[in-house]
Amino acid sequence: MQKKQLIMEKSLELFAKQGFEATSIQQITDHCGISKGAFYLSFKSKDELILTLIDHFMMQITSDIDYLVKNSPTDKLLYEFYYTIHTYFHKHMNFARIFMKEQMQTVNQDLIVKMHEYDKLHEKVILHMIERLYGDEVKQTKYDLIFCIKSFMTMYAELFLFEDIQLDFQLLSQSLVEKTNLLAKHTTIPFISQDYALLINHGKNLEITKEQLLKIMEEKIGEMEDSLEKDSLLLLKQELTTPSLGRAIVSGLIKNILHHPHCKWVAYLLRNYYQTMKGQNNKE
């Protein structure tokens, strides 16, 4: 196991028990069995470690639900959305516990900004899902539905995160699908106006330039061993620099890297990059 990964895994255990603020670097290094010098070779500070942990987990789930929302059949979409969210946080329970607690307690401004960014990204994904599922039927209430779905995501997660109750995630997902469909069909009095779309669009500040994307891809390529995924990422990097492939081939290459642990976020960024480019070309 690489030292950086060891520090992340062991610190997560301490953060889950004590919280971010109460855990010191000395405690982390003792728990890892390493020196402080070894810690600082991997992370400049405890804050950098915390932000790296947030990125590590949130990039994965953000990429997964974004792909799901854009590609799943509509008759299965809502169920798969809830099932994916809840099983992911159940699998990564230590992270989920501290993430939910720290959202309410933290005074770390960088952490607040980071959590807010991912929250806005998730709202954009949920809005896209709502528009796919219900279209103009929820034109006046779709922004209220975003908050209802976010509430379902967190309320029921508390049962297994803090109450230690064993849940049937299939039944939970079916139940939430029914509740969401009822709200979509019968809600008639909107509380949040369409002006809220302006707030959701703040999440676009995570969109990056082609140069930034190329740099991220280069870093990921350096971390990977020879594999189909690495070859696909190399081809995608070349395509960004010198476009020559058809859209179907590019989509296939992105699918090749989708489930590699180093590539989930790159796949998410590439999908959004090409979607933005397609939108710009259509306008022209």
From TrEMBL:
Residues 1-61 form the HTH tetR-type domain. Pfam families: TetR_N (PF00440). Keywords: DNA-binding, Repressor. Residues 24-43 bind DNA. PROSITE patterns: HTH_TETR_2. InterPro entries: Homeodomain-like_sf, HTH-type_Tx_Regulator, HTH_TetR. PANTHER family: ACREF/ENVCD OPERON REPRESSOR-RELATED, TRANSCRIPTIONAL REGULATOR, TETR FAMILY. This is HTH-type transcriptional regulator YerO.
